[in-house]
Every structure is written in structure tokens, then in C-alpha cells.
Amino acid sequence: MQKKRMWAALLAATMVMGSLAGCGAKDSEDKSTSGGKTEVGSASESVQEETKELDTIKILGVDRPGTDNAGNTVYLSDWVNGDSKIWQRLTSDLAERGIQLELDLIAEDQYETVIQTQIAAGLDCDMVNIHGVDSKTRMNLIKQGVLIPINEIWDTYSEESTKEFYTTGDGSVLELNTMEDGNIYWLSPITIGDYQGESWGSVKGAMIRKDWLDKLNIEMPETTDELYDALLAFQEQDANGNGAKDELTRASLSSFYNGIAQMFGLGTDLVCFTDYESGVVTSPWYQDGIKDYINFMKKLYDAGLLDTAESGTENKVENRLALICSWWAGTYEEAAVVVPEGQAGANYVGIICDSETGVSPVVSIQDGIQKNSNYEVAFTSQANKEAVGRLLDYLCSEEFSTLTEYGIEGYSYEVVDGVKVKITDSDISEVQLISNLPALWTNNAILPRLEVVDRAQELATVVEAGYSVGYEESGYSDKANVIKDIYENSENYVFTQMTPSASLAVATEDETQRSADLRADLDTYYKELLTKLIMGQSSMDDWDTYIAEMKELGLDELIEISQNRYDRANK
Amino acid sequence: MKNRNQYKSKIKEGNRAVTAILYLLAALMAFITVYPMYYVLILSLSEPQYAATMKVYTIPKGFNLGAYEVLVTDTKMWRAYANTFLYVIANTILMVITSTTVAFGLNYKKLIGRKFLTMFLLIPMYFSGGMIPSFLLIVKLGLYDSPLSQIIPAAFSIWNIILVRSYFRSIPDSLSEAAKIDGAGILQILIKIFVPLGKPIFAVIAVYTIVATWNSWFKAMLYLPHTDWQPLQMHLRRILVETTRTVTQAMDPAAAKEAAARELSNAQLQYAMIIFTTLPVLFAYPFFQRYFVKGMVMGSLKE
Q: What is the pLDDT of residues A249-296, one digit of tens each?
């Protein structure tokens, strides 16, 4: 009996222990496959024989998707595993520089989780997309020596032209990434806009339905009062012709970046705003046009002209949005609007109106040479610095920029009168894809983009977009002309930096922490306040109290932090 | 007094008005439960532009099977489907085996250290290690990026062990004792007496495991960085949340149209995917329903 009891105890204990942990032992044998990578991107077949001589750079990045004309979603891994000529060109270009890539591609939606868990477990790659990694973790990685200074690599291992690009050329915009120790630890994508030899960024702001103005015989509004009258007329005269008074203005109530605030000279950022001319950091709450802006928005709200949903596709698709805030050279907003059969398509045109207050309206614009802050890539201590130096040579080359933006000459683009023109009528999936988007290895994937935009060609493309949607003669020339006027008569405009943080130096650890602490309360407070003031739930009579409360919550300290960062970036 | 009693008995017998109200309430409950699913179905069948506006309430507006066409030709989706079936089958079998064997041991009254073993099981049931320690454990065990990370940790449930143990306790000791007299060993008692008698509870834990595994995605999110072995729910999540390139830069007209078209077709695709992933469980549910009820009752049993 005793023997059986012992036997039963042993059985139960074995089951418990075995089920809890013992099962893992089996997998220790599989260690070689753990953390296995879905794909290894190496050199193309033509250069595979040479792979033994190539230095491998192991990259952890995003498996970027794109959609071809047939509606199929194509991933970077499909290019890498398939017979993509564009990918093969990239690998052969790199092979010429003695480099091959080994890729660990993670689905986009999962990347943030994977990067964070892999940092916790220890990164095992040479190059990493650090999108989604917060400032504090980045600083810890630097302190631990996991990330290495890129500036030291281009100083020591890259060609002279590369060094010049990053120190005195267009790439010097990356100096904004300089950390407290004077080093740069990550590369950002760079966009260089060029209009007839001058640097120009993209414009984003209020856009009005020009086709509705024309339909109702209304002149393009030049003042905010005229704008109000036009928006009211759209409703009263049923501009969309559906029998309902549902023509609306989409302008966020809780944000200053809605196009209308800029008509009153206000900055775009939620709390702090960098004065484009003087470099003085302030806040829209301290600017002259703030009260008039709120009163104007309240007027729109009271008249039932505001789209309080603020987002979503419904009102846009159903042809109800009279005014939106978007990219002025974009034509994708119109493409989503369903107009009655037989009518020409929607036509949103950029609009700037003077307010009655005498404050100049501002045009929200990116820098001509813009460091984009959508994602960054860094190199780790296990990387072969000499190979990274050669990779940097390639990343700042015209060859890389052209391949990324246009693909291969004769395959995905042609040169007509010295201008690169993408081939849009191809049957090949990757050619269709690159005619719409940049190559899949960029834009938050594995390599930083170097985009060179010919603004004149961009405007020509904007005009052309209108030909196929009912504007056979003029195309979208109204849309293009507004932008062209800004480029050519810039002295008539006042500008504001679209993304103030793009002009600021990297925050120190203390600044990061303090800003996060301050903004947690400030953001909630001012968004609620702004919304309530516009909706009439809070009174403008208590203005001084609101400002005092925001000061108490640290608005001035936040401005000071941003001013210090601005000064460091521009010293 | 008499009248009141008569009135009471009338209600008990099934007054028509009360019956009608009860039917009405039941119909309302059914509507609240069924309509969201029906709503998703008609959205998935409507033309993309109507699906995007979500203003389809009774019957599909237009008829478009485009999203289903995309789904059935999506090899990644079928792979995810196969992965989920693999996890469901493996987890269910292993769950029944582990629950039965451990519960059988713990049910043995003269087991040495029985109380300690029970406590040893109960503590982690209430206090888990947390996400990061679990992640580090999985990495150290070599399960990271392996399909086994979806099977082994899910092959064992303390709750199910307790459920099975409670059921086994309801089996009279005299059966085991009679078997012993006939010369049966412990394994024979387990296999020839407890297993055949425990079929109802096995069905209950099997149903729980199937549903839990079918709906599981978070473990895959943490432990499977690559898509090869990810389950269907992870694929569904990807379709629901994945935003393709944010259109922030001016593009040529074709790109703009493509971006807008994707925005519209994605809306329809989401709904089609929800239907596609829910159908197997939806159809299986009526057959398993009674086991859910049984499971609840069994869980409430006290010694």
C-alpha cells in the first residue's frame, strides 16, 4: 500500500513539474532555430558567388507593405524572396560596395512590440529601425553602448563626399539628432524639395471646395468674413445638391493645426510654436489672434457649419466636406469623394484668408530640406564599422535616391527632356507599386529615405490629376497655382514651421522627462478648454484665469525647454 | 384571498400576456445578440463605398464579394487558418491529457504531499509571473519564434485541473476499490475507470480550450515575431489595424486614387475577415453549448 502511495505521489509530482517547466527542455535542442528569421536577404543570384567576400549587415526592420494596381498587398519580404528587379538592383549595388544585407523583417503592426521585447532580451542585429522606441530607452541603449555614434563612422570609414554630405551638405540637417555628448546615433529620412533652384517644402493647410465656389458663383474668399459667408452659402444653396443642409467644415476643435487657426496667425503645434522668422518659441495661447480665432470657430459652430466628428471617411465620401485641412499638392482627398454621376470630381484648393484683426495669416510649411521624424535607424555595437561606412556612402548617393524613388531606368522610369518620368502603365506589380510609392525598403522599413522632390514637376502632376476627373481643359490648375504663387512670391506670405519639433535639437534626458510630465496635464487641460470655449461651454470672460492655470501647469517652462532646444539646434 | 390565489395560479399556468412579454424579451435579447453579427455580414457584402460609411442597416447596399475574393486567394490567411487548427488540435489533446493525469494524482486521497501540491498549483493560478518574466522565460526555453510557444504554455491549465479533480471526486471510491480487488493497477484504474467516466468533463475542458485557442492572439504577438506560424486571429488583427502607408506627401494621381481605393476596400475587407474567422466557431457553438452549461455547473460544485 505504501509503495502504491509513493508511486501515485511520484506520478502526480512528475506531471505537475513536467507540465510546468520540463516541457521546455525539449526546446533547448531547438536553440539554433529560436529567434529564427523569416527571411535572409542576400545579394542577387548574379552576385551570390561573391557572397563569401561580402560583409554582412544584419538588419531588424519592418516588413513594409504596399498595394499594386490590382489591389494586391505586396510586402518587402515578397520582393526579397521573389524576383524583384528593383530589389536585385539594390543588392547588386551594395555588393559592389562589398556589402550584403541579412534581414529580419517584422510585420508593421507587430514591430513596436517586437522591438521592445527584443531590446529587453538583448538586440542581435547590426542595424535597427528604432521606430516606437521611446526617448528614455534610446538613451539607455546609448549609455549601455548598444548604439554607436554614426558621425564617428562617417568621419573614419566613409568617403570624403559622404562626410561632406552629412556635415556641410543637405545631410547636415541630421545634426538636429545630435545628443548631449555631441554624437549622432540615428539616421532620419531626409526630404529635399527644389523649385527652380530654391529649397521648398510641402504646404499643408485649409482647402476649400473650389468647384462649389464656381458652381454658386462665389469668388475665392480673401477674408475670414468672406469665408464664413461662403461656407454658409454652401449650406443654404445646397452646394452638393443632396437636398440637405449638410455641407460642413472639418476643423479640429481641440487642436491648433486645422488650417483655420493659421488664418489668425497661430502656430500649428498643440502647445509650443516656433516663430519661423525670429526663432522665438511661444504658444498659440500667447499670440494676438487667439481670441479672434476662438470667436470665429464659435461662430462656425453656432451656425452648424463644423463637422464635429473631426475624422472618419463618411462625410468626405458622401460629398459633404466644404473645407478640410490637408496637403495642398495632394489629390488623394478628392479621389475619395463620391460626386453625383455626370458631375466633375471634387476640387479642394488651398486657401489663406486675412482676419479682420490685422494679424497676418501664416502658411504652414515644411523646411525645404526636412529631417522627417517618422522613423529612425541606428547601428549597434556588433556592427562592422567599416561596412557601415560603405553603406553610408551608398545611402547618401544619388544612385540610391533614384533607385528608391524611381526604380530602374527603362524598367520603371524614363528620362524625358532631362526629367525622370515614372512608367505608370506597366503590368508588372513592382513597377506599378513604385509608380505610386517609394521602394518598399524605405518609409519605416529598413533603410532611411533620401527623397529629392522636383516641386515644378510635382505641380505639373497636380494639374494633370484633374484631367481625368472632369476638368479636361484646366486640370487642377487652380490647386497648383496657389502653391506656385507661394514659391514665386514668397515675400507676400508669412510662414510657420509645420512641425516645430523638426527644428528642435534632440531633448536631453531631463528635458524629455520634464516635457512628458508637463504635457500630460497641459494637453488635457488646453484641449478641453479650447473645445469648451468654441462650443460656448466656457466663457471668454475668464480668459486671464485660464492663462494663469496654464502657467501654473508649466506652459512657460515648456516653452523655455523648447526654446533651449531651438537655440542648441541653431547655435 | 381565494381570488388572489386563483390569480397567482393563472400566472403560473402561463398567462398569454406574460408569455407574450417573455417571448418579446427573448426576441429582444436574440436581436441584440444576433444583429451585430448580421450587421457585419451585410457590411461585408455591400459595395465598398457604402461599407466605408457604415450606413447599411437592413440589407446589403449593392452586392460585392470583392473582399471575399481577396480573402480566399490570400495564401497568408490560409496558412494562418492551418496554424490555428494545429494549435487548437494540439492544445486540446494536451490539455485533456495534462488535466486528467494531474487531477487523477491529486484525487488520490492517500497521496503524500497532496496539500503541498495543491497549493503549489493554486498560487500561480492567482498570481502570474507577469509579461516580461514570461517573455524572458520563453526566450530562455528556446520557444521564441517557435510554434511550440503557442502550444506548450497553453497545454496546461490549473483551473481545468481543479475542474477535472472535482469531477473525479464525484466518482465513487468503491469503483476504484473493486478494480483494485480485481487486480487493476493505478494506470489501469485511470484508463479503464476514470477516463471512460470522465468523458463529460473532458468535453467541457476541450470546448473551453478550443474557444480560448481559437480566439488567442496576444501570445503570438509576443512570442512569434514572424508571420509563418502566427494564428488566424493575429492575421485578422493585422487586417483590422494595419494601416498602409500614411499619405502625407503629395503623390501622383494614380497613387492618390490607389490610396483612396485602399481606404475604401479595407473597410469591406475588415468585415469579411471578421465573418471568415468567426464562422467555424459560430457553427460549432450549438453543438458544444450544453458543455458550456455543464462546465459552469461543475465549476460550482463543492466538496
A: 999 898 898 899 999 999 888 666 666 667 788 899 999 899 999 999
**A and B: number of Cβ contacts within 8 A:** 208
Q: Does residue B16 carry a pLDDT above 90?
A: no
pTM of the predicted model, to two decimals?
0.76
Question: Do A266 and A395 share a domain, yes or no?
Answer: no
- Are B235 and A308 contacting, i.e. CB atoms less than 8 angstroms apart? no
Chain A's closest residue to B255, CA to CA, is A436
For chain B positions 245-284, those within 8 Å of chain A (CB to CB) are 245, 247-265, 267
Residue A546 domain-assigned (yes or no): no
Domains, chain B, ranges and CATH? 2-66 (no CATH), 69-299 (1.10.3720.10)
Does residue A280 lie in a domain region? yes
A-chain CB neighbours of B254 within 8 Å are 69, 424, 435-436
Domain contains A434: yes
Q: pLDDT band at A387, cuts 50/70/90?
A: very high
Give the residue from chain B lying closest to A23, CA to CA: B152
Domain coverage including residue A318? 204-365+476-503
Question: Hey, what's the cell of A152?
Answer: 564617428
b/e A511-540 (16+ beta carbons within 10 angstroms → b): bbebbeebbeebeebbbebbbebbeeebee
Closest CB to B53 among A9, A104, A318: A318
Residues A250, A475: Cα–Cα separation, whole Å:
25
Query: Does residue A322 contact residue A247 with C-beta atoms inside 8 Å?
Result: yes
**Residues of chain B contacting A456 with CB distance shorter than 8 Å:** none
Q: Are A16 and B121 within 8 A, CB to CB?
A: yes
Q: Give me the CATH number covering residue A331.
A: 3.40.190.10
Amino acid B10 reads K
pLDDT by residue (tens digit) across A423-442?
888 889 999 888 878 899 98
Q: What ipTM was predicted for this assembly?
A: 0.73
Residue of higher predicted confidence among B231 and A418: B231
